[in-house]
Amino acid sequence: MRVRATRLRRLRIRKAVGHTSLAVGVLAAGLLYLSVEKNVTLVVNGRPESVRTLSGSVGQLLDTRGITLGPRDEVVPPPATSLADGMTVVVVDGDVVTATGQQGSQGVGVWVVDGVGGPFGKLMAQPTESLLSADSPVGPAREVDARVVVKGKEHDVLTNATTVRELLSAMGITPDGNDRVQPSPSTPLHQDLLIRFAKIRFVTRTETVVVPFTSFTTYSSRLDPGAVRIVRAGVPGSMLETFRVRIVNGKAASKTLLSRRVVTSAVSARRVVGRSRPQPGSQTGEASWYDAPGTGLTAASPWLPFGTVVTVTDLANGLSVRVVINDRGPFGGRIIDLSPEAFSAIASLAAGVAQVRLTW
Question: DSSP label at 137?
Answer without folding.
Answer: -
